[in-house]
Amino acid sequence: DAMVIQNPRYQVTQFGKPVTLSCSQTLNHNVMYWYQQKSSQAPKLLFHYYDKDFNNEADTPDNFQSRRPNTSFCFLDIRSPGLGDAAMYLCATSRRTGGWTEAFFGQGTRLTVV
Amino acid sequence: AQSVTQPDIHITVSEGASLELRCNYSYGATPYLFWYVQSPGQGLQLLLKYFSGDTLVQGIKGFEAEFKRSQSSFNLRKPSVHWSDAAEYFCAVGAGDSNYQLIWGAGTKLIIKP
């Protein structure tokens, strides 16, 4: 089945130690998103790629970076994780065709910072 | 400013009873409306969407929602809930046509009483 896959499902990292989360998709969608979701809150968009064009949200900390080496893969890099970065990170994809379409989400990566 | 309001943080419903989750939006143009469901520790799954046409839309898992422009509402309903419906439900509005940003409600946690 076509889908959005995030790895790993659970990640424990040390305070200040760089960490990378990955997302892959078999939907061939041209847009990929990274969201941060803290407990009992709505997802918060960090950035998205439209093809190779990177779009950063104004309030996304510089500590968060992203790479999209090809259509299928997208990575979220947290350069120096702090305790406040512990959250669920959600990857999503959509096909931008000139109108709105729905986003498809992965299962998420739960990040713990110790 | 664009916004989505889900006035109920928690709702408790007995198994087999009917359900209505409320969603109100503030958006000047024609809204693109979505309901997503999130089970604990999981990603978000699209239940249904409204873009245009018939204002009563059917979704997966027996859910439906009705778009009422005059009330700026997009309430989610299910005639008979099952224990497996216990989850968090998010309403979202597709805003703008430049970056395809979703505006999210705060979510409603559905608790099912046996």
Q: What series of H and E elements makes up the topology of chain B?
A: EEEEEEEEEEEE
Run of helices and strands of chain A = EEEEEEEEEEE
First CA to last CA of chain A: what distance? 36 Å
Report the helical percentage of chain A.
Answer: under 10%
For the largest interface, the chains and their residue counts are: A-B, 25 and 23 residues
Biggest pleated-sheet summary of chain A: 7 strands, mixed
Total count of helical runs of at least 4 residues of chain A: 0
Low-confidence stretches of chain B: none
Average pLDDT of chain A = 94
- Given the C-alpha coordinates, what overall shape of chain A results? globular
Assess the beta-strand content of chain B as a share of residues. over 45%
In short:
Chain A contains no helices and 11 strands. Chain A has strands at 4-7, 10-13, 19-25, 31-37, 44-50, 53-56, 64-67, 73-78, 87-94, 104-105, 109-113.
Describe the protein in words.
The complex is a heterodimer of chains A (114) and B (114). With 114 residues, chain A is mainly β. Helices cover 0% and strands 51% of the residues of chain A. In chain A, the strands form two sheets. In chain A, strands 2, 4, 5, 6, 9, 10 and 11 form a seven-stranded mixed β-sheet that branches. Chain A has a four-stranded antiparallel β-sheet with strand order 1-3-8-7, with no helix packed on it. In chain B, a hairpin with a 4-residue loop joins strand 8 and strand 9 (73-78). Chains A and B meet through strand 9 and strand 10 of A and strand 5, strand 6, strand 10 and strand 11 of B.
